[in-house]
Specification:
247 residues; mainly alpha; single chain
């Protein structure tokens, strides 16, 4: 039975595999040695690869693109069953699609200052970093949320305190992680199983994720605005004593 199933699957040579996944022969062999992908299927002296190998190598490449270390990739793949179908592995890859609405642009400090239209002091850069508009992934380089740069520079010009930007960033990060964890758990337990049970291809899941992005961002903004208004009204009521009189 297993032999007939293997015979029905597409078999690729090592060269065809590397062309398919965009990796070098050396990398494929390295990942095989590390156990991240299974060894090739032997037919005499030749080794062949299946869609299982393609799916796992594409997942490895996706994880690398998100900055995962080799050890983290090993742990992640260790949680995927050895007999997982290529479609199931592709679903994992679809879930890794970045959620950034504004993909950062990498540039040097000179390029950043040209984009800003002026020289930027260290304090100004610190404020832009605290606001999440600029990040320094490595020495001499910056990742910039280009569409937000002028907004950030406007706050800098208005004297927005760097300490306040740092504190606000910590609030956003803490609550952002909590929201992400809860929404990911909801997606994992309710959305993903429904599409998987229906036999939907990984591309359908990817389309769902892509369409959810703007709705999720809009919902978060609306909830934030409503909460800010409610909090402000509550504070005003407390200061004027209305809260005590109405209770």
């Amino acid at each position: 039975m297993e032999e007939r199933r293997e015979a029905a699957r597409e078999l690729l040579t090592l060269e065809e595999l590397t062309n398919r996944v965009g990796m070098s022969v050396r990398n494929v062999r390295f990942y095989t040695t590390k156990g991240l992908v299974p060894p090739p299927i032997r037919r005499g002296r030749s080794g062949y690869y299946t869609p299982d190998h393609v799916a796992r190598l594409e997942l490895v490449r996706e994880l690398q693109g998100h900055g995962f270390t080799l050890a983290a990739i090993e742990r992640y793949l260790g949680g995927i069953p050895d007999d997982a179908a290529p479609e199931d592995i592709a679903l994992h890859r679809a879930m890794l699609a970045p959620w950034q609405a504004d993909v950062p642009v990498e540039m040097s400090r000179a390029e950043l200052e040209r984009r800003a239209g002026r020289e930027l002091g260290d304090e100004e850069l610190a404020t832009l970093e605290a606001l999440g508009i600029v990040r320094r992934p490595r020495r001499g380089r910056f990742e910039v949320a280009a569409s937000q740069l002028q907004v950030g520079l406007g706050l800098v010009d208005l004297g927005f305190p760097t300490e306040a930007a740092v504190a606000a960033g910590q609030v956003y990060a803490a609550h952002g992680r909590q929201i992400a964890q809860e929404l990911n758990e909801l997606f994992r337990t309710m959305v993903w199983p429904a599409y998987k049970e229906a036999g939907a291809p990984p591309e359908r899941i990817q389309q769902v994720v892509e369409r959810l992005k703007p709705l999720s961002i809009a919902s978060l903004v609306a909830a934030y605005e409503a909460a800010m208004d409610e909090d402000r009204r509550a504070r005003i009521a407390a200061r004027t004593g209305r809260g005590d009189r109405e209770s």
